[in-house]
Amino acid sequence: MAALGGSVSRRYARALFELGVARGTFEQLGQELADLTALWGTSTDLRRALENPVFARSEKRAVLEQLLPKVTPSPDVRKFVLLLLDRRRISILPSIARAYREMADAHAGRVRAQVISAQPLSPAETDRVRRSLEQRTGKKVILDLSVDPSLIGGLVARVGDLVLDGSVRTQLATLRQRLLN
Amino acid sequence: VIRRLAAAGLLAALLALGGAGAASAAPEDQRQETAEHGQAGGGEPEQAPKIDAGKLAMQFLNFAILVGVLVFFGRKPLRQALQARHEQLKADLAAAAEARTAAAARLDKQNARLASLEQEIADIRAGIKEEAEAEKARMIAAAEDRARRIQEETAFVLDQQVKEAQAQLKREVAEMAVRIGEEIVKRSLTGADQQRMLDSFVNEVAGDGAPGPVGPSTDGAAAARRPQTRGTV
Fold first, then answer.
1. Model confidence, pTM
2. Hey, is the C-beta of A116 within 8 angstroms of any chain B C-beta?
3. Which of A154, B4, B177, B178 is the Cys-Cys partner for A166 at CB 3.0 to 4.6 Å?
């Protein structure tokens, strides 16, 4: 079911992405879609109102038509979201946004890296890490930073399915394994 | 035979009729005489009965004929019956003699067996002893085999337990060493160390573009600092 949902999400995302590429606005569309998804994730009332079958579609449409101009200046995204509402696909909006982001990153030649460090990184350290990852991957890297004290020291970077683990926790685990073997 | 029997029956019937006619004539005469005596008056004494010789002769003749008929017709069946009875008795005597012979043979056999009873008892006793010895040997062998198996199983279990204890001890030592190392690292880790690890990470990732492999390395210190890599971009 999840795979089926992912396939549907990718089809919708591809339609919007190709429109954005054709018009040269795919980055802007992606940003607006990300903002709308963030609003969708934070506003429980909005989700309940749009997903609740008790409300008529016309009522939901009226809500979106009032809300969308404030969040998405682009008429393409507005029409896209209203289309999702009409097709009863509004609940997969976050999944569509993720698929769109992957397509946009691939098109722009960039990758996203999740970097987890034991202590917060300074801007200079963040920049060094990003540059090293860009050098390693040969692509522009967008970092998603987070802190996990259980790493004890060092950091872990995930780029796609590549994991670069320089944490003390992993080194201790390796040491434990070597002692056991 | 049937014809003879029929003729004898017919003759006997005729004789019976003749006898019956004579017998019936005699009472008529007696009644006539009695009546004459009654008419003569009761004062005279009774006279002795007279023997009628003709009638007596007839009765003898009748009896002789009867005997002749019986002898003529009954001699042969009687002889046959007596012969059969004789044969039966002979057969019974032969069977009895045979049974007596067999009984005598059995008696001889029993007597012989009785004579060899001591030897037979000795043989039985020897057989029982031999079987007991064999059973004893078998039980001893089974017990030894079972003891050997128990010993092997016990040795195996002990060996497994020793190995398990060794592995457990090894795990505990490893866990303890790692825990102690973790505590030491946590206590002694400074900002400079963090910076050094970051530098190491950045250099390893961007330096030669080929981070160290996952797992043990011959260069322990370098491997400990080197970021571990899984997957591909």
1. 0.50
2. no
3. A154
